[in-house]
User: Fold Sidoreflexin from Glossina austeni.
Amino acid sequence: MSRIDVDKPLYDVNTFVGRFRHFAWMSDPRTCILSDDKLRQAKTLVEQYRKGQEPPGTTSDQVKYAMKLYSSAFHPDSGELQNFAGRMSFQMPGGMIITGAMLAFYRTVPEIFLCQFINQSFNALVNYTNRNANSPTSVTQLGVAYVSATSSALVAALGCKSYWTKRAPPIFQRYVPFAAVAVANCVNIPLMRQNEIAKGIEVTDENGNTVGRSRLAAVKGISQVVMSRITMCAPGMLLLPILMEKIEKAYPAYKRMKLLDASVQTCMVGCFSLKTSTMKRFEPALYEEMVERTKGKVPEKIYFNKGL
Assistant:
């Protein structure tokens, strides 16, 4: 039996189904409850297997499981163990609870303030945990990003609530959380990762060899992250308000059961959760660096870690 390449995905990420299976595999929420010792043991096994020094009798299933734990809990750039709440494997349970709360508690200013504060605190932690490790962020930059995102979310939420209360049907108020989340993501992520935009991020060839640093790649990666974050929360935050409005009209007593409402919406949100020539033209300095590093053998495609 051929050996497993622990540095490559187990699934074909060139297809949508393969990418879906890969990220579902590595972000399995069940890995959140495992101890740090268990995770470090998995990392050790992956490193040993990479060198061909794994313990005798190690099976392919053990290696694949270790790869899963390693991918779910350790930073892809630095190899450091990530904090519990910032891991992608915690996104489903953590995001589900917070989104359910935002959808249920949106009617008063204190409710909006508390929910947005908790949500932006969680987002800041996730963004910091999954930052590009080759572009470190200072404490001041983190603070500015956090305060800016929280402020923008509150302004968007309270502004939309005030406007829609006077000029739109009641159901529009249910979209206050989505408006706040979308605006905050557009502010928080670029500010949290501003060093990447200013200094660029490392780009590699298909073999993982660093060929330079690119600001264009940083902008593209961060833009994709912003859009994906908004898209991920859109199904639940756009469709659930319509469903809940119908339920409350059919069963008026349900509206008074806030804890039940929050629990139901939390569960339902969980069901919803889910070229080099260009560089030569737009980043001539990068292209020249690539020519120098590769001794004239410039790769047709370059790769980079866009973050999550």
